[in-house]
Each structure stands twice: as structure tokens, then as C-alpha cells.
Design a protein that fits this description.
alpha/beta, S-adenosylmethionine decarboxylase, 3 domains, 8-stranded mixed beta sheet, 7-stranded mixed beta sheet, binds flavin-adenine dinucleotide
Length: 443
């Protein structure tokens, strides 16, 4: 029997935040878009609470959530602590929104459909269709789909990335040491006065309280208690290595040790790629966005904002001119947000080697300041003005050994950023550019 062939302008694989945003912008540009999701839609994308910087919504062309249930909170302060809880850094105000991703994913999908995209659930893509020119479609169990653009927004599974030779050779799956095992749960507070006493003892009522370095330098456990609604949010992450506790184990341990925490309301766990984005984001006819492209802020594994911004860039380039759109998207991404993600990968790699003592000393000495903390949470490059440099100089005198490790990395972050801003236009220069980028970031 001959299979029926469908024809679309663009097919997007995966209806998480990156894929749904791509479908939304492509449909708004009057493209015929098919959004394919492997799972039932209610289970697609992130299913927990994520922190997302406000500016990233604007940059992605996505409306910010304004109320419950999607917008859960804006905290008064972020407090960072070392594992002994004796050393703290306080950031007044917050550049992020805490968002219930179940509602945000559903809103993005609905907006994409209202703009004209067609969403099909429980229809996993099994194969990429390729010829000598590049990618020209996908195959599912139900259909053969031809399309001018195939967008891989399938998250960590990278279903197109792993099946198309031009990607496969240049985009290997992230190594264990470059993956974060994360978990997030929202639970009932069963004893409000005990919860309040716990927060008061830490001077943290109404704040987000993050302990860094519980399971190696990178790891974190972020606690936020809403006393009014009697809910607690617990977010954890650690490098996915066998000798370290997983994100879920870090949540379970905290729940076990705090009797005021009650039943689980919702949440989830998963893996986040932490390595800098792949150099190759586009081949003829196909592009990678979101976790499939490793477009994640490496210092804390936040991928929602970057994936949505990449989705908008790709849709705009395709709407402008389909021919060469994926390469223009690749260049535009690397020269802007990609530069920042790669620069912070230098810091993330260094941070994995920090001991609890290093973290305490970084906070006490001022090597890690409210300014750099704020930049990290907002996913921005710190502005290296005279005040910051003078502060770092004084901090270096207080902790010279640590400074000798941190300051070269800070300079390397700037060098990486500049190198990415020079991402080449000529294809012939891509390989030497990549080789130098790898040396700069990974040495
Ligand atoms: C516990 C946890 C906490 C996190 N906290 C934060 C945070 O605070 N802030 C932040 O910014 N980020 C956070 N992240 C990371 C963030 O959730 C991800 O970066 C983001 O969800 C990636 O979006 P995506 O659309 O690229 O991929 P996904 O959300 O993974 O969506 C991919 C979709 O593709 C579908 N799919 C897979 N294979 C196929 C196929 N063959 N065919 C069709 N569809 C397919 C999947 O079913 C899925 O729905 C967290 C992650 C975890 C696990």
C-alpha cells in the first residue's frame, strides 16, 4: 500500500516550551505548521515549577504570566548559602518569575493552535527523511510528512539530531559529567508554625533559600515556602554521576528531615544538558532548539528562556526566507545568546570542582558578590565596571588561592563571549572556529 504524504511548511518535533514557541511564531508568520508530540499533551514538556527571568519572555515574544495558577510567585529576596548554612549572600529583589510549567506549556500550545498551528499528540517521530540536499521531512507511525523545515525540539532525546548524519557527527549526546540530574516538587506544609519557625531561624520568611555545594560544587537545593497557601517548593540539581546523590534523592532527604513538610502535590524529575550549545544548530532543512540543542544556562541548568528565544530567532529567519534560514539562525543565536551560554560554561566547569569550603570562602571574601549572583540568576553577563573590579581586587587579597582559580576563568569567560560574537558567516571557517571554541571553553 502506498503511504499518503502530507505537506507542511514546517514540522516541529516536540511540544515543550521550545517547540510550542517555535510553532507559535511560525504560525503567526502565516506558515503551515504541524506540531508533533510523542506523549499525550497533558504530559508534554516540563511538569514542575521553573524560575524564568522576566527579560527572556520579552526577548522570546511570549507574554509573561500575570496570575495564578501559571504565575506562582515573585520572591522578595534570593539567599545563597554554603552547605554549613553559616555563610550567606543576599540578593534583594528578584529578576525571575516562579512559574507552574504545566500551565505555561498548555498556554503556549493553545496560543500556537489559535495562531493556526496543528498539534497532534501521542504521535512520536520515528525517522528523519533525508536526501543528498539535507532533511526534507519526518516519518511517524501514522504518516509520512514532507516539510521545508524540520525543527528538533524533542528535548534531551534529540530525535532528529541523533538520526541525521550531519548533526550526529557534530553533536554527540552530552557526557554524564555535563548533565544535571534535577527534581522539583510542590508539597503541602502540614505544620505552618513549624515551617514559620524554620524560616525565621534562617531569617528567610518570603525568600528563596538556595544551598549550594551539597553534592559537589555545582549542586543546589532551593527552598521556597508560601506560608499563606501552605505550600513548599523544593528544587534540586546535581551532576549526574554515580557517586553523587540524584536530584530526586536530594528532595527526598530534605522531606524526610523536615516533619513540617506534608504530601506531594505535583512535580517531576529529569536530566538537563549543561554543556555549551552545539556549534551546529542548523543543516539544510532542519534545526535544533531547546534542550535538543543544549541551549541551557550552564551555571544552573535553566533552559526554558534560551529555548524560547532560539525558537523565535529560527521562526523569524524562516519567515524572512526559507533558503539558508537554519544557518542564519545558527549564526544569530551563537553571536548573541549562545555567546553568553558558552561563557558561563567556563564557570560551570570550574564550579564542579568547588568544595564546601571554597563556596564559604567565595561568599565571605566577596569573590562571589551580590552583583555576580544577580547576573547569574538573571542569566546575564556581569558588567565589569570599575566598582566590580575594585571589589574583586579586594576580595582577591582576602582569598588569594581561590582568586587564582577564579580570576583566570572570569577572563576566559570574556574571551569566549568575544569569540562567539565572531561566529563565522563562511561555512568553510566553521570547523576552525569550532576547534578554537572547544579549546577556549573546555581546556
Ligand atoms: C526538575 C527540573 C527543574 C528545572 N528547573 C528549571 C528552571 O527553574 N528554569 C529553567 O529555565 N529550566 C529549568 N529546567 C530545565 C527546563 O525544564 C528545560 O530546559 C526545558 O523544559 C526544555 O524545554 P524543551 O522544549 O527544549 O524540551 P522538553 O521540555 O523536554 O520538551 C520536549 C518534548 O518533546 C517530546 N518528544 C520527545 N521525543 C519525541 C519524538 N520522538 N516525537 C515527538 N515528540 C517527542 C517530549 O515528549 C516533550 O514533550 C528544569 C528541568 C528539570 C528536570
Amino acid at each position: 500500500m502506498t503511504e499518503a504524504i502530507e505537506h507542511w511548511d514546517a514540522v516541529v518535533v516536540g511540544a515543550g516550551t521550545a517547540g510550542s514557541t517555535a510553532a507559535l511564531h511560525l504560525a503567526r508568520a502565516n506558515k503551515r505548521v504541524l506540531l508533533l508530540e510523542a506523549r499525550p499533551v497533558r504530559d508534554s514538556g516540563a511538569q514542575w515549577v521553573n524560575a524564568i527571568p522576566l527579560w527572556m519572555y520579552d526577548e522570546a515574544g511570549v507574554d509573561k504570566p500575570t496570575s495564578r495558577p501559571e504565575l506562582r510567585a515573585r520572591v522578595a529576596r534570593h539567599i545563597m548559602l554554603d552547605p554549613s548554612w553559616n555563610h550567606r549572600l543576599v540578593l534583594e529583589g528578584s529578576p525571575v518569575l516562579f512559574v507552574d510549567m504545566r500551565h505555561m506549556v498548555e498556554r503556549l500550545q493553545r496560543s500556537a493552535c489559535e495562531a493556526g498551528a496543528v498539534l497532534r499528540e501521542s504521535e512520536p517521530v520515528r525517522e528523519a527523511l533525508t536526501d543528498h540536499r539535507g532533511v526534507y521531512g519526518v516519518r511517524t507511525a501514522r504518516a509520512v510528512i514532507h516539510s521545508k523545515l524540520v525543527v528538533d525540539a524533542s528535548g534531551m532525546s534529540g530525535v532528529i539530531r541523533n538520526r541525521v548524519a550531519a548533526f550526529k557527527d557534530r553533536c554527540p549526546p552530552p557526557k554524564h559529567g555535563d548533565v544535571c540530574s534535577a527534581a522539583q516538587e510542590v508539597r503541602r506544609v502540614r505544620d505552618s508554625s513549624a515551617a514559620r519557625a524554620w524560616l525565621q531561624a534562617r531569617g528567610a520568611v518570603g525568600d528563596a533559600l538556595g544551598v549550594v555545594g551539597l553534592e559537589g560544587g555545582f549542586s543546589t537545593r532551593l527552598i521556597q515556602v508560601d506560608l499563606e497557601r501552605e505550600e513548599v517548593e523544593i528544587l534540586t540539581g546535581a551532576i549526574a554521576e554515580r557517586h553523587r546523590a540524584s536530584g530526586q534523592a536530594l528532595v527526598d532527604e530534605f522531606v524526610r528531615d523536615h516533619a513540617w513538610i506534608g504530601e506531594r502535590l505535583f512535580g517531576g524529575a529529569g536530566a538537563i544538558p549543561l554543556r555549551r550549545p552545539y556549534d551546529t544548530l542548523g543543516v539544510e532543512g532542519a534545526a535544533l532548539i531547546g534542550d535538543a540543542a543544549c541551549q541551557v544556562f550552564p551555571a544552573h541548568g535553566s533552559g526554558v528562556g534560551a529555548g524560547m528565544i532560539a525558537a523565535r530567532m529560527l521562526a523569524e529567519e524562516f519567515a524572512r526566507e526559507p533558503l539558508g534560514a537554519t544557518r542564519r539562525y545558527e549564526r544569530r543565536f551563537h553571536r548573541t545568546l549562545g555567546a553568553r551560554l558558552a561563557a558561563y560554561d567556563v564557570f560551570r566547569r570550574l564550579s564542579q570542582g568547588f568544595s564546601p569550603k571554597d563556596i564559604a570562602s567565595m561568599i565571605d571574601s566577596g569573590l562571589f558578590s551580590a552583583h555576580t549572583f544577580a547576573a547569574g540568576i538573571a542569566q546575564e553577563m556581569p558588567t565589569l565596571d570599575a566598582r566590580l573590579l575594585a571589589g574583586l581586587g579586594r576580595a582577591a587579597l582576602r582569598a588569594p588561592r581561590l582568586a587564582a582559580r577564579l580570576l583566570p576563568a572570569a577572563l576566559r569567560m570574556q574571551a569566549v563571549h568575544r569569540w562567539y560574537e565572531q561566529f563565522p558567516s563562511a561555512r568553510a571557517l566553521a570547523r576552525p572556529w569550532s576547534a578554537a571554541a572547544a579549546t577556549l571553553v573546555e581546556r
